[in-house]
Amino acid sequence: MQVPVTQVDSHLPRVAGAALEPGALRQRFAAPPVWAPEVISEPRFSSRSPLPASVLVPLVMRDRLMVLLTQRTAHLSSHSGQIAFPGGKADPEDADATATALREAQEEVGLDPAAVEVLGTLPIYTTGSAFHITPVVALVQSDIVLEPNAHEVADVFEVPLEFLMDPAHHQHHTVDWQGSRRHWLSMPYEDAGQQRFIWGATAGMLRNFYRFLLS
Asked: What CATH number labels 5-214?
């Protein structure tokens, strides 16, 4: 995406490595601090009624925690081709936001809910397409075997949590579009020679996760 970078947040502190360990994350969600999310909504471009949705923020427990992300297929009607967390809109049968996230992750990438330890949720993030997304943060066993749904998922990859929780990798962008000024974050990541451009709602929710862990 060729949009100028207006700011890089290298002046902000990164989250300490000790705070990114599974035990520390369990404690943080068990007794959350008083904090406020930084990014809660995007400018609306959809006139339809808001829809509840959830995403799973899967933290795979390898030598260091890795964030599992997907590249959406190009033909999808919503957020096609973008990097995203596994997730989607709520079904009437879902008991709650966590149930939605676990179901969607299983449907999209074949993630077995038995391999998932849910830690808690982050504040709702509202997209321009009128989805009210609840991010569900979870630890995931390292021996998972994934089976991505080829209709929805073009690729699955992992990014070190410590990379995403270092604001030196957080870039700001501003562009004038359809008569209004839009601002968003990105967190570009070089993955084995491939540029992964994490931006939009995914980057916004990660930024809130950063603020939650830094509080």
From this structure: 3.90.79.10
